[in-house]
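Record 1 of the preview.
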Amino acid sequence: MRERCAIFALSSVLLCSCTHIECVTVGEKFDVTYSMEDEVPITQNVEVGENGGQRGQCGSGDTATGWTMDCLRHDACQHYAVANEGTDGIKKELPGGLGPNCLDEFNLAIDDYAGSADKCGS
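->
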């Protein structure tokens, strides 16, 4: 089946996203790979729900939806970027995950945020 893709304009940034959603479950562990602006891959073993119980959940607080692989990857990237800010050229992250470091991962997770509540629980 061909994936349906959507284009979003957010704060003058063009975001493209496809509607493939891979659900994950709290307590599962995965090796996730992401990159900073330099595009050098970073692989990390991450547990769904760690770091305050939210890692892997799309959105936060009252706007949180389901638990997905793309949101897990974005959360891991964001956590790494904040923890390593200022080293190796890593720039300061912006609130809401729209910083320069993890924008690729944000683009992959945006359709999960919109469609995971029905498919992956909230």
